[in-house]
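Figure 2 data, in text form.
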Amino acid sequence: MSKTGRSEFRYEPLNPSYSSFRLAILRKGSKTAPIRVQLVHTTLNQLPVFEALSYTWGLPKPVRPIALNGKRFEIGENLWHALANLRSVTTDRNLWIDALCINQGDSPEALQERSIQVKEMMRTIYSRAETVLVWLGPEHLSSQRKFGVLEASARKEDLRTPSSNSFSLFSFKRFKSRNESLQKSNVGINVLQNHHNHGNTADERELCGRPYWQRVWVIQEIGTAENLHVCWGKNVEPWESFFNRIHTAHPPNSEWALKLDRHRQHRFNDSHNLLFNLVETYRDSQCQDPRDKIYGMMGLARDTFNSNLKVDYEKALFEVYGDVINFHYTSKTDSLYVRRSLIHISQLVQSVLRRSSEDQELNKANGKHLRDWHEDSDISKGRNLEAMGILAGKITDLGPCYHDLLADTRASNSWRTVLARVPGQHRPKLFETFEQFLEALIGLEQGKGFSVHTKTYPVNTNGDIQSDQTTKFFSGLRSSSHGMQCPSSQPRIALTNSYDIGLVPGNSQIGDLVVQFENSEVVAVVRNLLSLPNCLVGRAVLSNQATVRNSNDRSPFRVLPGPSGTKGALGETFKVSMDLLTLSRMTT
């Protein structure tokens, strides 16, 4: 794009006082002619007639040049193929294309423009477009044999070109009337169905396997569009017709495409179009900028329309995380839901914002500058957050360190002696659980794909526990550490009064409370101090939690609290207070 250094075009700033945006006029031309595009500024109140392109950017290289306002401008190969195939020989075409119509540079001015266009304009642009063109990519030989006849039918019905020969302004009444007449025409659709009756699912499988369906931004583009046409090569097909075939053939790789079709069918469902529902549903969608996992949903999320959550591409990832947590904490009227779901929401947001190594390499190759996840204590100041937890038990016995347990048979035998003192009805299950737990830890050391996460925090970390019955619950329980010592930096095995085995931070003490959270594998160890505020000791792992697991089958340790607030073994609920920085570390 313009930031590659080999583009001569320079953007003129948009008018910030109006709902202004750019349109790209794709100039007519022969198949072999250079691609020429003219960028023009317009506003929503001018009611421009245009089509919007929905596509995937693809890899940053190779690039191909076009002429943009007479200047050399480099674009990605997939966009180049889209322009080459959508271009008419006889008629200019008015398009909105994000890579061209939004300044994608890294300057402060470009980032500010991008933030405004994404937050305030994109939803409206796609909803007002005469047609949204879903570009799947170039023609495929198998598709050409089956669907090649559609091009002539589409051209005959003028499905692919607007009626104007240059940039023009019409009332919505005119182009909506034209849209309705196009939808009534079944020419091309019938031709496609006749060919489909004699075909197989090979073409549907190939089309459903294309990268387009997994892109973050298409969720908003498809969800807000009034009229959609699916395009590949020179082929054009209405969305409804295309998915009638996909539903009939149901190729094995159609999950992503069908998910988007279901989303479009339920796009007016308020409960579906809430920010965290959308983020969770599409958490595995692909994008180059991890912030788009949040920003790409805001055009659809009804609970963000008038919220204090802003799109800002100048912010680092931890700042975006803080903004989203603040939105969750302040925008809901149900305070109980906010506290119960805080840990789960924090995990969800971090999981989509923290970039994989593949994302980092892609952004590096694309010339993007994204600050890594740098925890900022200044951002965390003044944000005291409460999470509602479930009391899962109290530490009654502390055993050897994690590494001693694996390396020293005396340590493991000593722990078996501890388990032998447990009341008889619980003893068989505890021994079985310990052996499975030990096997999982050995698998971790041998690199078999197990994962263990324990974290220790400074003992003065705020972790206010509110529970009137804590003393009553644990009075008279036998506790012992059996003389076992462990460095505070190493996790150690522990037993709770609810007969759970787990790994806890090395500085845990007998009497510390174990807390679980709804819809989350996070387990916290909290210290109940008599004369001082209670404190969060760290994060632990219980044998019935998913954080000790085999990455292939995730067994035998996968029991999560249910969405309706299913309680743990002891079941008492109470609040845990922490700042934003502690929350982020607890839920990493």
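Caption note: The radius of gyration is 29 Å.
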